[in-house]
Amino acid sequence: MRINFIFANMNRDKHITKHIDEKLQGKSLQYSQKPENRKKVFIESYGCQMNMNDSEIVASILLKQGYNTTDNVDDADLILINTCSIREKAETTVRNRLKHFNKLKQNKPQTKIGLMGCMAERLKEKILEEEKLVDLVVGPDAYRDLPNLINELEDGRKAVNVLLSKEETYADIEPVRINSNGVSAFVSITRGCDNMCTFCVVPFTRGRERSRDPESILFEIQDLQSKGFKEVTLLGQNVDSYLWYGGGLKKDFDKQPDEIKAQAVDFAQLLDKVATRFPDIRIRFSTSNPQDFSLDVIKTMAKHPNIAKHIHLPVQSGSDRILKLMNRKHSVAEYKAKIDAIRRYIPDVAISQDLIAGFSTETEEDHRATLDLMDYVKYDFGFMFAYSVRPGTLGAKKLNDDVPHHVKLRRLRQIIDKQQAHSLYRMQQFVGKEVEVLIEGNSKKSDRHWMGRNSQNAVVIFEKTGQEKPGDLVKVLIDDCTSATLFGKKI
Ligand code: SAH
Ligand code: F3S
Asked: Is there an atom of ligand 1 within 6 Å of 359 CB?
C-alpha cells in the first residue's frame, strides 16, 4: 500500500482579498458540469458545532471539485465522516459506524471512505492500518487540500494530510449550509485552542489558536442575511480569546510592534461591530472560557438588544483543587464574581454549563463543591460528562484516573438530577410572561406547531396561526413548561 502525504501551501491572505473582491463585483462561481455528471458526497458529522460548520466548509470545497452533497449514503461516490475525539465514546461511535459502511463497501467497492476532523488528526495514518476500509484521512486544517487528496484516491492510492496550520481560518470559503435550517447559521471566528486543559484533546487535534479576519466575518454574515438567515452563532473553542492583528497565531501577538497591537480587534470589539452592522440578525456565540470572558463583552451584550441573552460558560468543576489540576485558570470565587457581574448588567440572562464528573483524584468533598456551585448559579441548562481519559493529554500522562467508573456515574447522575431541577425552575420563570421567539421550523412532534427559541435559547413550541413562517420573530405568551421546553400561544 502506498500512502501519499500532500501538504497544502497557499498564500491565503491574497486569496481572501481576491475572492471577496470578485464577490463584491457581483461575479459568482460557475459550475459548468451538468447535475447528472456531478459526483456525490455524503457527509456525516459528529461532535461540536465547529465540526458541523467545518462540514459545510468541506461541502463548499468539494462543490468546486464537481461534488454535490447527498442525503442518501447508498448513492454516494465519497463518504466523509467528520469525527470527534473529545471522549472515548465519541470515537467508539465512529468505529461502529465504520462497520456499517464496511457492509456498504462490499456491495459497492468503488465508494471511497474518508475520515476527517479530530479523530483523523489524533490517529493520523495509523487509522489506515486499524480500519482497512478507510481511503482518506484529513485533519481539520487540511481541507483545502481535499481536491489533491481526492485525485490520489481516483488514482487508486490512499491519501493522508494531517498538517496543522498557523494561519488557516477558511476565511474566504463560503460554507454550503448543509447543517442549517435556513434561519440560523454557524460562523467560525477562531480555530484551535491554546489553553491546554489537562483533560482535553482539542489543542492536539485542532492546533494552536488563531483568529479570522473581521472583514471576512462581516462579509459572511452579510451574505447570510441576503439569503434570508436571521440568526448567526459565532463559533470558536474559546471565542472570548478572539484577537485579530492581521493573521497568525494568538501566541505571537505579544511579539508584534505597537502600531499593529494598537489596531488589533478583540472579541468585545468584534461583537460590537457585528451587532451594530446587523441590527436585524440575532447574534449568539459559543464557547466562552471564564478566564477570558471580559467585562467589555458583558457591556457589549447589555448594549445591543440583538445579542442573545445567553452565555455558555463551562466551569467543569466547583472545586478549586480540581480546577487547578485541570489547568483551568480561574478559581471558584472568580467564576462566581463573573456570574454576579453578568447578572448585574444583564438581569434576564440565561447561563449554561459544561461539567465533568469524576476527574482524577476527585473526592466526595470536591463533588459536593460542584453541587454547591450549581446551587449558587442555578444554570438554565448544561452538558454534563463522566471524565474520559484522552491519550496524549497531560491528564493521561501525569494524573491517575482513580475515580471508579460506578462512582463517576453516580456523581454524574447527581449532577444531572440537580441540573434538571434548576432547568425546570428557570423555565417556570417564563410561565405567564411574553417572550420573543425566532421560528426555526415545524415542531418535531406535530406539524400543527412551530418550534423556535427565545433570546435565552429556550425551546418554545406554539400552535401555528397561518400568519407566520420560519424566520419570523413573534411574541408568544408562555402558559406551560417542562425542564426543557416552553409552551405558549402567539399573541
Ligand atoms: N472550549 C470548547 C470545549 C470543548 S469540549 C468548546 O467550544 O466547547 C466540550 C466539553 O466537553 C468541555 O467543556 C468538557 O466539559 C467536556 N470534555 C472535554 N474533554 C473531556 C474529557 N476528557 N472527558 C469528559 N468530558 C470532557
Ligand atoms: Fe479544551 Fe480547555 Fe480549549 S476545554 S478546547 S483545552 S479551553
From this structure: no
CATH 3.40.50.2300 intervals, the chain: 35-161
Q: How close is the Cα of 192 to the center of ligand 2, in Å? A: 9
Helix (H, G, I), strand (E, B) or coil at 72: coil
pLDDT tens figures, 172-196: 999 999 988 999 999 999 999 999 9
pLDDT in tens, 264-312: 999 999 999 999 999 999 999 999 999 999 999 999 999 999 999 999 9
Pick the CATH number of 434-490 from 3.40.109.10, 2.50.20.10, 2.40.50.140, 2.30.110.10: 2.40.50.140
CATH number of this structure's domain 35-161: 3.40.50.2300
Task: Give Cβ neighbours of residue 369 (< 8 Å, ≥ 6 apart).
Answer: 317, 318, 319, 320, 332
Which ligand has the minimum distance to the alpha carbon of residue 50?
Answer: 1
Grid cell 410572561 — which residue? 433
Q: Of all protein residues, whose CA lies closest to atom 18 belonging to ligand 1?
A: 200
Helices (H) and strands (E) in the chain, counts: 16, 22
> Is pLDDT larger for residue 33 or for residue 309?
309
Work out the average pLDDT over 64-76: 94
Tell me, in angstroms, the distance from the centre of ligand 1 to residue 302's CA.
28
Mutate to test the pocket of ligand 2, among 49, 194, 196, 202 (most ligand atoms within 8 A of CB): 202
CATH class of the 180-308 domain in this structure: alpha beta
- 339 pLDDT exceeds 90? yes
265 lines ligand 1 (CB under 6 A): no
Read off the pTM. Answer: 0.92
Predicted local distance difference test score (pLDDT) of residue 21: 37
Nearest bound ligand to CA 190? 1
Q: Is the dihedral of CA 321, 326, 329, 331 positive or negative?
A: negative
- Give tens-digit pLDDT for 388-404: 999 999 999 999 999 99
Q: Is 387 in the pocket of ligand 1 (CB under 6 A)?
A: yes
Within its chain, how far is the Cα of 419 from the centroid? Answer: 22
Mean pLDDT across 415-419: 98
Query: Which atom from ligand 2 is nearest to the alpha carbon of 206?
Result: 5
Give the Cβ contact number of residue 418 at 10 Å: 19
Tell me, in angstroms, the distance from the centre of ligand 1 to residue 66's CA. 36
Tens digits of residue pLDDT in 147-173: 999 999 999 999 999 999 999 999 999
Q: pLDDT-derived band of residue 36, with 50, 70 and 90 as boundaries?
A: low
Q: State yes or no: cis peptide before 287, omega within 30 of 0.
A: yes
Which-ligand-closest: CA of 189?
Answer: 1
- Give start-end residues of each CATH 3.30.750.200 domain in the chain: 342-429
Check: CATH 3.40.50.2300 for 342-429? no
Q: Is residue 289 within 8 Å of residue 327, measured between CB atoms?
A: no
In the three-class reduction of DSSP (H, G, I as helix; E, B as strand; rest coil), residue 479 is classed as strand
- Identify which of 486, 490, 458, 465 has the alpha carbon closest to the alpha carbon of residue 477: 490
